[in-house]
Amino acid sequence: MKPIIKKILLLSAIIAAIFAVFLFILDVFVMPNYVKSPEVKVPDVLGLEKEAAADLLKKNNLNPVFETPRYDENIPKDHIIFQKPEAGSTVKENRRVYLHISNGNPLTKMPYLIDKTLRDAQITIERMGFVLSEVEEVNSEAKANTIVEQSPNEGANLKRGTKIKLKISVGPNKGQVRVPDLLGMSLKEATETLQMNSLMVGNVSYESSNNLLPNTVITQFPSKSTLVNVGETVDLFVTKN
Q1: Which among 76, 101, 126 is the end of a domain?
Q2: Which residues contact 236 (CB under 8 A, 6 or more apart)?
Q3: CA distances (Å), 127 to each of 14, 132, 156, 163, in order?
Q4: Could you tell me if 51 and 35 are in contact, meaning their C-beta atoms sit under 8 angstroms apart?
Q5: Domain containing 149 — which CATH number?
Q6: Helices in the chain by DSSP H: which ranges?
Q7: Cβ count near 151 (within 10 Å)
Q8: Which residues, 6 or more positions from 30, have their beta carbon under 8 angstroms from its beta carbon?
Q9: Average pLDDT for 165-184
Q10: Are residues 123 and 151 in the same domain?
């Protein structure tokens, strides 16, 4: 082989080797810096207002994508209730972060409770997510143990957990009287006194006493001067025979 050819072949081999080394360096050390995107950690945007969440994601080179809003009882309207990827995840820059915002607490119409029994009204209130907070007994011509007034009124749009107040009938008001003082009276006298005041004797209990005559009233309930409805009973404690 001629010397000139040998030189050409040697030079070609050297050039090929240099080119191979160049390709290796380019592939391993140079190109990854251009091809590989920087990575970032996804910030926590749960509970943030919509605009604040979007701004925070953009500052971290991420793209917020808002999905269909959802009702939520605890998170205020237009605040973030869900994010994907989750906070703390490591992702490439410009990654999309999917967000759901709260539509607030769903509203429910207040039902009509008038004329229902207290038990039925309570079941309805609890089933609709409301809270029975107060029950007031009132005299009414309506049937006893039925609802005569409700607050809020029927048809009001209410959030779950709204407190409901009811008024329940205990029957018509037949008038009121004050309980007379019966202490020291005999059982017969106490009975007559109660009848004269449109009241009745309730339970009679007997207790021993060495100082008083038998059948003497020593305790009464309700006590004297208590305002009660006409026809109510008064319990008595009297001495034994």
Answers
A1: 101
A2: 182, 187, 190, 201, 202, 203, 204, 205, 217, 219, 220
A3: 86, 11, 16, 13
A4: no
A5: 3.30.10.20
A6: 3-25, 31-35, 50-59, 118-127, 187-196
A7: 13
A8: none
A9: 88
A10: yes
**pLDDT of 132-168, one tens digit each?**
999 998 888 888 889 999 999 999 999 888 999 999 9
Long-range contact pairs involving 111-114 (C-beta distance under 8 Å, separation at least 24): 111/154, 112/154, 113/147, 113/150, 113/154, 113/166, 114/147, 114/148, 114/149, 114/150, 114/154
Q: Among residues 130, 145, 169, which one ends one of the domains?
A: 169
Q: What is the pTM of this model?
A: 0.44
3-state secondary structure string across 73-106: CCCCCCEEEEEECCCCCEEECCCEEEEEEECCCC
- Going from the C-alpha of 168 to that of each of 10, 90, 118, 123, 141, the distances in angstroms are 110, 60, 7, 15, 11
Q: What is the mean pLDDT of the chain?
A: 88
As a whole number of Å, the end-to-end CA separation of the chain is 151
Q: Coil, strand, or helix at residue 176? A: strand
Task: Assess whether 97 and 112 both reside in one domain.
Answer: no
Q: What's the number of domains the chain is made of?
A: 4
Domain of residue 187: give its range: 176-239
**Structure tokens of 116?**
């229902």
For Cα atoms 57, 62, 68, give the angle at the middle one, nearest 5 degrees: 75
